[in-house]
Structure formats: structure tokens, C-alpha cells
Amino acid sequence: MSREAARRLSVLLDGPAQRPDGPLARLALAWGERADISWAGEHGSHLPDAVVSLAGKTACRFPEARAKGVHVPRVVLCTDPVSAPESDEAALPDATLSAACPPELALERLAETVRQARRMEEARLRRATFGPLAAGALPTAAPTQDLSRGIPVLVAGDSARIGMALGAHLAALDLRGCLTAEAALAALEDAPARLMVADLPASRAAELLGRLRADPRHIALPVLALCADEAEAAALLTSGASDCVPRAVAPQILARHLLCLLRAGARRALADRVLAGYRPRHRSGKGLPALPRAAFERYLAALGGALALRGLEPLTLNLAHIAPPPLASLAANDGPFAVSSVNPVLSATLAASRDEDFVATVEGLGDIAVLRDAEAQERIRRRIGAIVTSTAFA
Questions:
Q1: Do residues 258 and 181 both lie within one domain?
Q2: Are residues 273 and 298 in the same domain?
Q3: 265 in the same domain as 162
Q4: What is the CATH number of the domain that holds 74?
Q5: Strand, helix or coil at 291?
């Protein structure tokens, strides 16, 4: 697989390909240079990275994927959320896309949805292969967050509209209202939120989004913005809103958008915690044993079965073969034959990789990284080489 091909998303459009003027066809035309597009009934034998369907339509099912722990995220394109909603009985999608969202930004949002689905896949795979983590191995939640009061949802503006939409779910939520953007930012300083809703004039909402996205603590906070028309929606989505719906939308439709964002945020937080917990468990040193060879081979076989559905295979990288050993960094009082107290290549790999990248010290094999495609392998080789050759390890 070429590096260029590895960067392209495989997107299945779940609709009629014969409608050149339809919203899905317009997306296909806009994404044609940056994604591999197929249509329902015409895609090949490999699973797509994501399915994009219209609201109210039945999405393609992939039972063989679910059996192997593979999740193909479903994204709903909302062309008219006021009058063409999904039915209340339909399963929540992984994400929604407003038709007002600029195509390039929509593709970036789709890529992020795919990445979060892969992170959840990896978290499930590690739990199934290596067993659950001990309670002490999971990073603890922020101490300021009181989960006994429910899931914290912060509304900047008119909270009555949101309360009406979420009426059936209020027992599980801690709904807090702030009349201004400044009050909402101050409330986030006091206690974090799982979701923010901005029901403000467009200029004030855009200013709030800009300040939120400039703060590393809130850069991933899901934000639903309410708007008056498509022009406002496009501006707010470009400013950083996760989703945007008209103020005139029916309460049950607004509730679906809110619950979709809440679920996506909860999955992200869970994947973050689980993957961060497994990471130190699989490194030897400081009294930790190496990962047993049999457990590693079970993981590799399960990952291979999942990737095969996408036409890929796992790539195993022996870290000892990536870069030549760096010169030892010695202190003045070190003996002439002292060695570095850390493994430089392993340290560089952990710095260059993400939590979902599998890095472990395997019994009988040494330090191993397992990557999902050739582009990821080449990227991590370059990063590790640059870190190892330019860093002093003591």
C-alpha cells in the first residue's frame, strides 16, 4: 500500500448513486480527491472506514465485522434536521454531519470519528486479550467532577429549550445553565462538563468557541451550537462547534443530537482511560515483567483477523532494528562502563506514538511496536530516528 493510499479514507455512501444532484453525490464530488468513495451495493469485499447515510435511512450492516470486534462508524448527513429527522426508534449514529459544514471540514470530522472508533476497537481488543485492568491501573477521573450528581451538561444561553429536549433523561444529567459566554467559561473553571450547548447569538457563540478551542483543557469538549440558518451553522462549525442544529428543531430531534454527542464524548473518555492504563502494564523495567509471548501472539492474531476485513495486516516492528544505539550520556561521576538507565529507542517510541499504538516489551522478542498500516510504520520510524539522534538519555 502506498503512503498516499494509506492516508485516504474509505467511505461508503449509503444512498442511490443515480442521484447526481443529491447531497451524498455532492459530498462524493467534493471528497473525490481525498477519499475512496463507494456506494451501497457497489463496494468491494473490504469493509469501509465509515458509512455516511441520510437521516431516516437504514444504514448498511456488517455482521461479520461485529463478530470480530470491528466497528464501522455510521455518520448521518442531516440535510434538513427540522423536517427530516431519524425516527425515535433508530439507533443513535456515531456522529452527525450538518449539510452546512464545509466539505473539507466535514472530511476532517469524519476522519476523527473513524479514529475514535479505532481507539474503542483497540481498547476492547486489549481487554479481551490481556484481561481487565486492576482498579488501580486506570487513571482516576478529575477530582473536581462529582459523578454522583449525574453527567454534567453546561448550557450557555437558554437552558429551558435544552431541559425540554432532555426531559426524559434529566435523572441521569446534571444540567447547569449560564446566561453568558463569560459565565460559562467561569463555570468550566469550577467544574468540568461532558457537553456544552451554546444557545447564544452567533457572534457570541463563535467567540466562546474560539476561547474554548484555544484552551488545551477544553479542546475536545463536545459543543452543540444552535443557529438561525445555514450561514450561521457553517460559521459556527468552522469556529469549532462539534454539531449545529437550528433553533426551530423539534425537542426530540434536538435530544438525539445531544445524546449522540454525549455518547461520543463518553466513548472517547473511556478509550483514553483504558488505553492509558494498558500502556505502562506492557513495559518491562521498574519491577514490571515482560508481556508473555503467548499473550502477544493472541493479540496479534486477533488484530490480524480484524484488519483483514479492511484489507490490511498488522506490521510488527522490532525497535532494536529502527535506529542505531545513541552515544551514552554519562554524568561526571559515572563509571567508564556505565550504561543508560533507560532504553532510548523504547523511550523515543513511547514519546512518538499514541496510546492506541501497541508498544510492549515481549518475552523473548524484546521491545516491539505493532502498527496498523505502512504509513504509520514509516511515520513512527522517522519520528523515533529523529528523537534518538537528537536527545541525550541519562
A1: yes
A2: no
A3: yes
A4: 3.40.50.2300
A5: strand
Count of domains observed in the chain: 3
Quickly count: other Cβ atoms within 10 Å of residue 360's Cβ.
24
Q: pLDDT per position in the chain (394 positions), as tens?
A: 333 334 589 999 988 776 677 889 999 999 988 899 999 877 778 899 999 998 876 667 787 788 788 999 999 998 876 654 555 445 889 999 999 999 999 999 999 999 999 999 999 999 999 888 766 555 555 444 444 467 888 899 877 888 888 877 777 888 888 888 899 999 988 888 999 999 999 999 999 999 999 999 899 999 999 999 999 999 999 999 999 999 988 888 888 999 999 999 999 999 998 888 887 766 655 556 788 999 999 999 999 999 999 888 898 888 777 655 554 444 555 554 444 445 666 766 776 677 888 888 898 888 888 887 766 666 767 777 666 666 655 5
CB 314 within 8 A of CB 307: yes
Indicate whether 75 and 29 sit together in one domain: yes
Residue 98 C-beta-side C-alpha neighbours within 13 Å: 26
- What grid cell was written down for 390? 537528537
